[in-house]
Fold this sequence. Notes:
alpha/beta; eight-stranded parallel β-sheet; 23% strand; binds N-(iminomethyl)-L-glutamic acid; Imidazolonepropionase; HutI
Amino acid sequence: MTTTLLTGIAELTTHAEADAPGPLADAALVIADGRVAWTGPAAQAPDADERVDLGGRAVIPGFVDSHAHLVFAGDRAQEFAARMTGTPYSAGGIRTTVAATRAASDDALRANLRRLTEEMLRQGTTTVECKSGYGLTVEHEARALRLAREQVEAVTYLGAHVVPAEYQDRPAEYVDLVKGPMLDACAPYADFADVFCERGAFDAEQTREILTAARAKGLDLRLHANQLGNGPGVQLAVEFGAASADHCTFLDEKDIEALAGSQTVATLLPGVEFSTRSPYPDARRLLDAGATVAIATDCNPGSCYTNSMPFCIAVAVRDMHMSPAEALWAATVGGAEALRRDDVGHLGVGARADLAVLDAPSFIHLAYRPGVPLVHRVWKNGTPAG
Ligand code: NIG
Ligand code: FE
């Protein structure tokens, strides 16, 4: 077993006890067997088989992007352009991507997924969640999850994304399909089930039926909740003990209290509000109430086509009033908690050695220098990427 000592770390954020009261300056980190074996002051670093001098850069845990829709074909650039000049975002655009995705070959979908996950890795994301939701038939949903499973670590069944056009006049039959044969075909590939609980997608009763069936199949739950308006999504997520309620753009006081008193993570997706020109979620109220907050990209061809966690951090800091430290935590540990993982998102001893080296002396530069490609190198599973 080769051990690797990373030196020349100007600032090390571990999100473990070593950080108290803040990141460690002039630090070192030892990787052994794909895991973090030691962190501490450079002056006390143990010997190792090999040394890598990082030249005075900041090191952070790799980002955990806990919400993305990456199995799709085509894009909706024209829809985006129209939106920027006044056409509001509508979930109806999902059907455009459904048609393109159904028509695409496995290899075309694989190649698009590969392109997106490689971009993510280059931007410091070392754990990715990916949903289905652009197939909406038994065959196409199962295919999406099978392809996602080949390339990402956390896979979510989202047959309940919208009611597809062919079921437009019989939504109850579509819900029966989603919680019956489609769930049976998809569950073997999935860790989680998700429902887009929103006016124009699935209502409280339909959501309840689908979540109940998915839970009975042994899947963990997550929910698209309160994205386009106030609604029952957050309350249902908490009631069902979901790992995460995602979007949380329109919350009332009861929703905030419910999240704060639960294990359900509030996953905020600031790229969506940026790309749909919508009001941002009230991250401060959630944090101040004691809710666990994650930040993720929601990368998809409709509401948000960025897969950059540094960009989302910059927006969360600038427009959602999170401190840079809160935003980094939400993009790493928060994402891990939203996926019910404790081995990623931090660099405590024993954690998976997933880390990003920044071309900057401090993680604060992620928000301070928006749009600048600051990720210098990435280690995943203890191995340098790229
Ligand atoms: O998370 N809200 C539902 N689904 C995606 C958007 C999908 C699309 O527009 O294609 C979201 O924003
Ligand atoms: Fe989404």
